[in-house]
Amino acid sequence: MTDTTASEKTEDIEIRLLLDALYTRYHYDFRNYAMASIKRRLKQGREQLGFPTFSAMQESLLHDPAMLAHLLRYLTVHVSEMFRDPSYFKAIREKVVPHLRTYPSLKVWIAGCSRGEELYSLVILFREEGLEDRTLFYATDISQDALQEAEAGIFTMDRIPLFTENHRKSGGKSSLSDYYQAAYGRVSFDKSLRRNVVFSDHSLVTDAVFGEMNLISCRNVLIYFDRDLQDRALGLFKDSLARKGFLGLGAKESLRFSNEGAAFTDFVRDEKIYQRRGD
């Protein structure tokens, strides 16, 4: 065994022990996340936080409560944009919304809402389609910091041109600037967009279902899970959806090889939008 191989195996053991400590001490469960992704992010955290080893990170996690917030910033991924993949939101607008119009009240769950980009995209879309007033939105994430940023609804001005173009391509019926105020290099989205939103700390790994959802949108989260954890999350979505409710996944995610796939039909295949079977 080469020194490099031995070192890598030692690091893998340290990482598993670190993740066990995180779960045992704080009940955040990353043990079944894709190892390559976890290892890459933890290495970045180890270097930037100045720890010589993952074992040293574990010791700090167990004895310094402030370490939890630092570690979660590296373990949770918050990379998104408003109306990301505009064709997905156009399909929601043109294919899913006509079905949702038939319901007197609606529940929408944005799982893994990050800093709120997808949440505000859907609220704006529902407002433009006349469905906002009858809809309750649940925005959940494992990170309290991300939830606080989502609830604040503030983004830097340099991101707005992309958000605006995505909104236009998604079939937007107004100007995105109608929904925010700009000052000092930042934009603040209107508080009225949050009047029907419930923000909640929720883990797809350990927490329970949200009942009778009409639409669940969870995009670019499952790619960080291993197969067993993906099936766990998809089972959670299946049990949370009303009959014939809709599930939207990210462009690189699929139900194709999932144990839960039989519970859904393809609704808009190219955009990874599925419908729960009604039987």
Describe the structure.
By secondary structure, the protein is an alpha/beta fold. It folds into 2 domains: 75 residues; 191 residues, Vaccinia Virus protein VP39 (Rossmann fold, 3-Layer(aba) Sandwich). It is 43% helix and 19% strand. The strands form 2 sheets. It has a 7-stranded mixed beta sheet. A 3-stranded antiparallel beta sheet has the order 3-5-4.
Topology:
Blueprint: H1 3-26, H2 35-49, H3 54-63, H4 66-75, H5 86-100, E1 106-111, H6 117-128, E2 135-141, H7 144-152, E3 154-156, H8 160-169, E4 180-183, E5 186-189, E6 197-201, E7 213-218, H9 227-240, E8 241-249, E9 264-268, E10 273-276
Helix pairs in contact: 1-3, 2-4, 3-4
Number of helices: 9
* Topology order in helix (H) and strand (E) letters: HHHHHEHEHEHEEEEHEEE
**Any idea how many domains?**
2
Distance between the termini: 55 Å
Provide the residue-averaged pLDDT: 91
Shape: globular
The CATH superfamily of the largest domain bears the name Vaccinia Virus protein VP39
Q: Helix/strand-derived class?
A: alpha/beta
CATH architecture of the largest domain: 3-Layer(aba) Sandwich
Lateral arrangement of strands in the main beta sheet: 6-2-1-7-8-10-9
Low-confidence stretches: none
Radius of gyration: 20 Å
Any idea of the CATH topology of the largest domain? Answer: Rossmann fold
CATH first level of the largest domain: Alpha Beta
Q: Level of helix content?
A: 40-55%
- The tally of strands reads 10
The fraction of residues in strands falls at 15-25%
Largest sheet: 7 strands, mixed
